[in-house]
Structures are given as C-alpha cells and as structure tokens.
Amino acid sequence: MSLDFTEQRLSYEKGSLEQQSVPQSPFVLFGQWMQDAIEQQVPEPYAMSLATCGADNKPSVRIVLMRELTESGVVFYTNYESAKGQDIADNPQAEVLFFWHALERQIRISGHIHKIDAQKSAAYFQKRPHDSQVGAWVSQPQSGEVDNREVMEARFEALQHQYPEGSAVPTPEFWGGYELCAERVEFWQGRANRMHDRIVYTKDNAQTDWHTARLLP
Ligand SMILES: Cc1cc2nc3c(=O)[nH]c(=O)nc-3n(C[C@H](O)[C@H](O)[C@H](O)COP(=O)(O)O)c2cc1C
Hints:
This protein is α+β, with helices and mostly antiparallel strands.
C-alpha cells in the first residue's frame, strides 16, 4: 500500500508570536499556552513526545505524561529499567515535544535529565489508583519481551491477590520520576504561507537569564 498526502495542506491562521512581547521566562509562556490548550479542551494537553538517544546513537521517541511543571522543567514518571531509562542512563540529555493541533502550536523543551528524589516518586506512586500501582509491578522490566498477554494477566491477578484492594502496594525501586531541566525551549505558532513564528529561549546551566531569538520557519 502507498499513501500520497502531497495535495493535503492547511493554512495555519490561529495566532502569532512576537519576540518583543514574550515573557522573560519560557515557563510563563508555557503556562499561558497550556491554559489556552485546557480552555480549547485539547485532550490530554500534558501528553508529550519524549526523545532520547542511548549509547547506540539511535534516537527513540514515545509519549509520556507530564505530571508537573517545576521551576526548572518538566517531570514525568516511568520505569527506570525501561528502554528509555537505559537511554537516559547512557546519555542524560532529552527533548520533549507538545503538539496542540487545535491551537496550531508546538513546544519543544530540551536539556539535561535526572531522576527525581525517591521520596517524591514514592509520594506520587502512593497517590495513584491501586490497580495502576499493581500494573507498575507487572510491567517489569518495562519494554522487555513477554510471551503473551496471558502471562501479563496472570501476573496482574497474582499481584492483586498479594495486595488486595485497600492494602498498600510498595513503591517499586525500579519506578519513579525524571525531571528534564530546560536549557532550550522553542515555541512554534503556525502562520499562513508557511511563514510560521518560532521563538527560542536558550540558557546555559550556569546562567540564570534566558536569551530569546526568532528562528526561520
Ligand atoms: C497517551 C500515552 C501516555 C503515556 N504515558 C506514559 C507515562 O507517563 N510513562 C510511561 O512510562 N509510559 C507512558 N506511555 C507509554 C510509552 O509511550 C511507552 O510505550 C513506554 O513508556 C515504553 O517506552 P520505552 O520502551 O521507550 O521505554 C504512554 C503512552 C501513551 C500513548
């Protein structure tokens, strides 16, 4: 099967972005754009693509859910022994991307990534629904191969038996949060005629002030 989309094109006309009027901090603009996405009822606007690249030099990308915007960047939770966890252990640099079609907007955030404090991970794990907690134990190691679905379901049932509803499920050591600390944040607003607005914020780890620039679309 082949597919041809060469005649498909949309004109993006929903907004604009001026370098002179953007806030000093990219997190303020991120917050404003996130608020717009919530108002426009973008489904799961906190879902983001996470790109990593391990020692094999092969990039890898998948969706994860942003759980927090901190003063430094974004936090998400996962299995530390997953494929992404291995990539991050090899190379602690990553990029996340949000795309909100309803707003014709894209945001890219890249920088250094590190595990968050184990106590904070445990506090979040303990807030999750009981069956999601059990699911985290089933998916170990996440990204490992499994013979079939029945194997997963049998593990799920056995763990539900071990930890019945209402009982505490221990926080797995192999599970927790990562914080991606922003060093570069790019905002993209679609415009007509492919004359899109791109404003990038950059900062070295040592610097406190952000520098902005307009990029060619
Ligand atoms: C909407 C959506 C949300 C997801 N959220 C997460 C998440 O927060 N954490 C996570 O580990 N995986 C999440 N996943 C699954 C990942 O995309 C991926 O399949 C999994 O983490 C294994 O990735 P890896 O093999 O690259 O480590 C989500 C997938 C989708 C489609």
